[in-house]
Amino acid sequence: MKRSVCIASRAGKKRRTMNDAERAYNLEEFAAGVNAANPGVTLPAQVGIAAPEFEAAALDGTTVRLSEFRGSSHVVMMTGAVTSPMCAFEAPALNRLQLEFADKGFAFLLLYTRESHPAENYRAHESFEQKLSYARELQRLENIRVPIIVDHLDGRIHRAYGVWPNALFVIHKDGRLVFRSNMANHRELRQFLEDILAAERAVAAGRVVHLQYSERVVPHEADQATHRRVYERAGPKAFEDYWAKRPENRNRWP
Q1: Would you say the C-alpha torsion 191, 59, 163, 123 has a positive or negative sign?
Q2: Residue 6 has what pLDDT?
Q3: Cis amide prior to 52 (ω within 30 degrees)
Q4: Would you tell me which of 131, 139, 223, 253 could form a disulfide with 249, CB atoms 3.0–4.6 Å apart?
């Protein structure tokens, strides 16, 4: 028998029932990374071709569409949630990069996704209103200056690009996806943005440019202090779920 989730509003009125896609996406436990040896296969959005189109609600009540940036701005999009330690770690650097590059033809977005470590204080989403409220919590708690857009309850944007908790994408102003990473790395991002600007200057000066394509797999050290802080914010279940997947780290990390 399929489980039915009927969501109640504050006024006690029943809202619509979550559908199968929404229930399947909003996991109630931490999902350990799959295909760790080859993360690229977990990212359906492909570099070099048109990025998946999307529209999403922003926290200011507007709707943001990827198509609106076509021809005017490159789009930097990082995924995250209030229970994502990696998002919390990368957020200050993303704020700084926005200050530095926003007037150079780049638009920055943070896509709010499902909870990375749902627990007692921030549970798996059961309504879009709940997801919006958690996104506002992330904005407040981590001082997010980058515009936050909130994915649909079924995670359709997240699923179209790749369901990593803190992935990073750059979409060229011509609509092509030109950068993807399953884990955000602000140092790598800065270099890539500078490379785009250098290429634009070369083209404007009439110089010859070559098209480079690259892939890499490299270990990414996790910041223990940020993980502990965000797990504590989420609740004790965040620790237990993680240790259930990584028993060798119980009571040792984070």
Answers
A1: positive
A2: 42
A3: no
A4: 253
User: In the structure, what pLDDT confidence band is assigned to residue 238 with cuts at 50, 70 and 90?
Assistant: very high
Q: What is the pLDDT of residues 95-112, one digit of tens each?
A: 999 999 999 999 999 999
Q: Residue 147 has what DSSP assignment?
A: P
From first CA to last CA, the distance across the chain in angstroms is 38
Q: What is the pTM of this model?
A: 0.93
Distance CA 183, CA 166 (A): 5
What are the backbone angles phi and psi of residue 141, rounded to the nearest 5°?
Answer: -70, -35
Specify whether the CB–CB gap between 64 and 75 falls below 8 A. no
Q: Nearest-5° angle of CA 32, CA 38, CA 43?
A: 75
Please choose, from the candidates 174, 182, 219, the residue with its C-alpha nearest in 3D space to the C-alpha of residue 199.
174
Among the listed residues 116, 118, 117, 53, the one whose alpha carbon sits nearest the alpha carbon of residue 80: 116
Residue 227 DSSP one-character state: H
Token pair of 170 as six digits: 């750059």
User: Does residue 69 contact residue 107 with C-beta atoms inside 8 Å?
Assistant: yes
Find out whether 107 and 74 touch, Cβ atoms under 8 Å: yes
Name which of 168, 211, 197, 192 is nearest 45 in CA terms: 168
DSSP 208: -
- No. of helices (H) and no. of strands (E), the chain: 7, 9
Radius of gyration of the chain (CA): 19
56-101 residue pLDDT tens? 999 999 999 999 999 999 999 999 999 999 999 999 999 999 999 9
Helix-, strand-, coil-residue percentages of the chain, each rounded to 5: 40, 15, 45
pLDDT-based confidence at residue 36 (cuts at 50, 70, 90)? low
Question: Residue 125 gets which letter from DSSP?
Answer: P
Residue at 118: amino acid letter = P
